[in-house]
Design brief:
With 111 residues, this protein is mostly helical. Helix content is 47%, strand content 5%. The protein has three helices and two strands; from the N terminus they run ββααα. It is elongated, with a radius of gyration of 19 Å. The protein starts with 32 loop residues before the first strand and ends with a helix.
Length: 111
C-alpha cells in the first residue's frame, strides 16, 4: 500500500521530500497515498489516474458489447485523431477526455 522507508527499511522517509524511497524505486512508485496533516490519507495522483483508466476500460467494454470492437476502435481513433497503436499515446488530458466523451455518447445513444 505504502512504503515510507528506504530500501531494506533502514530509515523512515518523508514521501513529500523523498519521492523515490531514497533511490529504491522510481519516483512515486512506493506511495499510493500520502499522509495528510489531520492523519487521513491523500490519494496519489497516480492512484487517481489508475482508477480513471480502469473506468475508461469498463466504459469501452460496455460500448463494445453494445456495438462492436471495430466500432469502438474507430470511434477512439476518430476522437483521438490518430491510429490506435502501442507506440502512440495521448499528449494531453483533452485528447483522453475527447475519447471518453465519444465513448459516453455512443453508450448513451444505445441505452
Amino acid at each position: 500500500y505504502n512504503f515510507y522507508y528506504t530500501r531494506f527499511s533502514k530509515r523512515h522517509v518523508n514521501p513529500y521530500v523523498i519521492t523515490d524511497a531514497d533511490a529504491f524505486a522510481p519516483a512515486g512508485d512506493a506511495y499510493s497515498v500520502y499522509p495528510a496533516p489531520n492523519g487521513e490519507a491523500l490519494e496519489s495522483i497516480r492512484i487517481i489516474a489508475h482508477h480513471q483508466a480502469l473506468t475508461d476500460i469498463k466504459a469501452m467494454k460496455l460500448c463494445e458489447s453494445l456495438y462492436s470492437h471495430e466500432a469502438v476502435v474507430a470511434a477512439i481513433e476518430d476522437a483521438f485523431g490518430k491510429e490506435v497503436r502501442f507506440d502512440v499515446c495521448a499528449k494531453s488530458a483533452d485528447e483522453m477526455l475527447a475519447v471518453r466523451e465519444r465513448i459516453n455518447e455512443m453508450i448513451k445513444a444505445k441505452v
